[in-house]
UniProtKB/TrEMBL annotation:
Residues 5-49, 52-91 form the IMS import disulfide relay-system CHCH-CHCH-like Cx9C domain. Gene3D superfamilies: 1.10.287.2900. InterPro entries: CHCH_domain-containing_protein, CX9C. Pfam families: CX9C (PF16860). This is IMS import disulfide relay-system CHCH-CHCH-like Cx9C domain-containing protein.
């Protein structure tokens, strides 16, 4: 998971900062108010091979975590066990054969 977060931060820093700021500013309504920014983060990270592999390999855990967040919008901390399962899965994903810097091959 840390690898995915690092890559997200590296390639999508502006989007993540905007989204994080919106969520912090809207603790009980962030799902609605920050939806557009969430989509920008998703679009930015969706094309990165490392993140794609983690999402594929841990799709069950990710879906359960996402569902919990949607069902507990005003208390996202109630999804701690869900995020822990997703993180646990993500940390076991073999990234050794994944290209981690696709942008460099196109420049």
């Amino acid at each position: 998971m840390q690898a995915a977060m690092d890559i997200s931060a590296k390639y999508c820093q502006k989007e993540l900062e905007s989204y994080g700021s919106c969520v912090s500013s809207n603790p009980s309504t962030w799902q609605q108010k920050c939806h557009e920014l969430k989509m920008k983060v998703a679009h930015c990270t969706a094309s990165h091979p490392v993140i794609q592999k983690i999402k594929r390999d841990c799709s069950k855990e990710f879906v359960e975590f996402d569902k919990c967040l949607r069902e507990n919008q005003s208390t996202p901390t109630s999804c701690t066990s869900h995020v822990a399962r997703f993180v646990g899965c993500a940390e076991t994903v073999d990234l050794s054969k994944v290209e981690t810097n696709p942008a460099s091959s196109s420049t």
